[in-house]
Design goal:
- The strands form two sheets. A seven-stranded mixed beta sheet has the order 1-2-3-4-5-7-10, sandwiched between helices. A three-stranded mixed beta sheet has the order 6-8-9.
- By secondary structure, it is of the alpha/beta class.
- It starts with 5 loop residues before the first strand and ends in a 9-residue tail after the last helix.
- The longest helix is centred in the C-terminal third of the chain and has 20 residues, at 234-253.
- The chain has a single domain, classed as 2-enoyl-CoA Hydratase, Chain A, domain 1.
- Helices cover 46% and strands 14% of the residues.
């Protein structure tokens, strides 16, 4: 059974509609803004259970009239370094099954109703970038780092980035990030539209919170209505993309290039790919 999600109330107001109690996701209301903090430092890797907890919390907050906007942030050095499949899961059928479960939960995040701002610090890499791109907006400071590093690991992108990344930065910038897998900093990300507001160093969460309060000051029924119009069809597009992404990931996880990419990453060396 999935453990319920913890609601933290220090200096804040408890949300009666939010689920309660788990150590790796803290939730509290700051006025009309709910702050969801991932607590798996330093890298804040996610799995199906954590993504599910974020989804269930956001769904609960959808039913809470005291909450009008959400800020998604993380404790530790990085926003999110992607998925954690565990040391005992390889790249065969078990990984495909685990990924399928993860993606089925992830798509539900796109079906929630209230605006989400991701406050990114440190790295948002791979699936962590996908998580940030599930939000309506992203805030980061110049030192933040973003990477769709899948091609450097030898496999296809996931977490719906096939849809969300081009939607946010445009087809050309998305193709550049996905083909090269290169890392960009917060300033570069702001120039191409991946980051919506570039914060002063160390203030990404405060900047995101202030922006969320701006949104929360608007008429809540109008905001949710406008958001539904602007994001119409997005969740369905992501769901279709996730099915294709997983098919391609499963195919490429079986290649020599993927083994080389993963091995090179673990050994912190430059990979040498041969197209097989």
């Amino acid at each position: 059974m999935r453990r319920p999600v913890s609601t933290e109330t220090t200096g804040s107001t408890e949300s009666p509609a939010a689920p309660t109690a788990r150590p790796d996701l803290a939730v509290h209301l700051d006025g009309a803004v709910a702050v969801l903090e991932i607590r798996r430092p330093p890298a804040n890797y996610f799995d199906e259970e954590l993504v599910g907890a974020i989804v269930d919390t956001a769904r609960g907050l959808d039913e809470d009239p005291a909450c009008r906007a959400l800020v998604l942030c993380s404790q530790g050095k990085h926003f999110c370094a992607g998925a954690d499949f565990g040391d005992d899961i390889g790249f065969g059928d078990e990984r495909v099954t685990v990924s399928d479960g993860l993606y089925r939960r992830a798509v539900q995040l796109f079906r929630t109703r209230k605006p989400i701002i991701a406050a990114v610090h440190g790295a948002a890499v791979g699936g962590g970038l996908g998580l940030a791109c599930a939000a309506d907006f992203r805030v980061a400071d110049p030192s933040a780092r973003f990477a769709a590093n899948f091609a450097r690991l030898g496999f296809h992108q996931g977490f719906g980035l096939s849809v969300t990344l081009p939607r946010i930065v445009g087809a050309q910038h998305a193709a550049d990030m996905l083909y090269t897998g290169r890392r960009i900093d917060g300033s570069h990300a702001a120039r191409i539209g991946l980051v919506d507001r570039l914060a002063d160093p160390g203030t990404s969460r405060a900047t995101a919170l202030a922006w969320a309060h701006e949104i929360a000051a608007a008429a809540p029924l109008a905001v949710t209505s406008i958001r539904a119009t602007l994001r119409a069809g997005l969740a369905d597009q992501v769901e279709q993309a996730l099915a294709h992404e997983l098919t391609e990931q499963a195919r490429l996880w079986a290649t020599e290039d993927c083994a080389e990419g993963i091995g090179a990453d673990l050994q912190r060396r430059r990979p040498t790919f041969h197209g097989r």
